[in-house]
Amino acid sequence: MLAAERRNQIMEALRRDERVLVGPLAEQFDVSEETIRRDLANLEQLGLAVKCYGGATLADNRNAPPFKVRKKLNVEEKKTVASLIAQMVDDGDFLMLDDSSTSYFVLRALHGKKGLTIVTNSIEVILELSSLHESWKVISTGGNLDQDVFCFFGRQAEETIRSFHVDKAILSCTGVDLSGQFTEAGIENANIKQAMMASARETILAMDSHKFDKTAFLSVGSVRQLSAIVTNADPGPRWREFLAEQGVRLVF
Fold first, then answer.
1. Distance (Å, rounded) from C-alpha 20 to C-alpha 168?
2. Is 106 within 8 Å of 84 (Cβ atoms)?
3. pTM for this one?
4. Contact 125, 104 (CB under 8 A)
5. Each residue's pLDDT tens digit, 93-111
């Protein structure tokens, strides 16, 4: 197993349990405890974990990690979600894509669609579009550049978004819980997503399955505002029942 894959699995365990121990991880992955300590040190350096005696805890981040970090986490799950969303997009659609790493994979899955118009605050999405050689119209929101997250935020970006009316907004989030709210870590990120929702005929929430039953700092909106939640695995009967009650389509 590659180190990156092992660290992704450690991150999944941290998100699930909020703490991991060196000994059990070394046994699980059949590597030395020193190898696990290096993995945890790497995750701490990226701001994703905090080392403690015997292991590590999940970092309490109020802001999203850098894009280059997020793009490498849970890649297979994001590809699964992206593939499902591509089936929900029609030729000629007007779309909004947020600055999430999931949007990057959604964009790649849309390869072959014709006549799309895409509004985004993500520089990474814009750069990826330039390499796909698709005949799509691309509109950048502009605004204040966040060099870590690699996207635009602020009033100018929000006003640009609100000036358009699109078919679908495709967004991600930090977490969603059974109170009926989906949440984000940072206020600027939440504001951008709210503007996109207000400008879209329907909103699709794209998320890894580990984000169910998670709550972040700020509410983005109500689950009832969504037309669909697309994820990589069945979240279980409790969530299936809840989303059916809310009138939200669950796709996995």
1. 39
2. no
3. 0.76
4. yes
5. 999 999 999 999 999 999 9
